[in-house]
Amino acid sequence: MTMTQRKLIGVLTPSSNTALEPLTSAMVAAVPGVSAHFSRFTVTEISMRDASLNQFDDSKILEAARMLADARVDTICWSGTSASWLGFEKDQALCARITEATGIPATTSVLALNELLATQGARTLGLVSPYVEDVQRRIVANYAGIGIDCVAERHLDLTVNFSFSEVEPDTLRRMLREVAQQRPDAITIMCTNLSGAQLVEEMERELGIPIYDSVATVVWRALKTVGVAPGAVKGWGRLFDGTA
Questions:
Q1: How far apart are CA 66 and CA 158, in angstroms?
Q2: Residue 230 is part of which domain span?
Q3: Which CATH number do you get for residue 100?
Q4: Do 193 and 118 belong together in one domain?
Q5: Which of 113, 70, 67 is nearest to 88 (CA)?
Q6: What integer pLDDT is reported at residue 44 of this predicted model?
Q7: 160: which DSSP letter?
């Protein structure tokens, strides 16, 4: 492989996130010629307060995207889940603006998740997140709006984004087991600062339900965008081998 055949994945990262960068890099580490590159913008709190909502102003995200464009990345991915509560149209508009500003195709964790759910024909969803009740309710309502019923949910009532990365794996395992009791068509771990992606393969074997982690969904879509088969990623769940 020549250096010109490299595939560079640009990833927009919330400033207080410590989970998604190592997880993303680990997923693509064994894929020849593929590497992930990151740009941050300020996100420290997740709530419905104005100060929290204003963190997702497009101008700040576009500034971070332009810096990724300097690295000549092949795609720019927002590895964040804000559109799940702010509205899916937010991510659609953001992707259009990123591509307009940089000429580079863009996607997001949430748009990738929705594509996967549509492809699977999922009608019911189990929702696992660290968020507070009113954020969780917005997510449930937005999925109802596209015909997907969140038949089970668990959340941790946390608002400080940094704290999400300190949630113990056993806590996530328990939440996944609890939502699985309703036998949803799919389960999502909705937050890119939870260390859930590395649990997916183990928990899919145990529960027999596809699990779509927010960090993993954007990697899946990024690989497809740059022309690399997602099956090149091994050990991170059914999402990548096409059996979900």
A1: 31
A2: 3-110+215-241
A3: 3.40.50.12500
A4: yes
A5: 113
A6: 60
A7: B
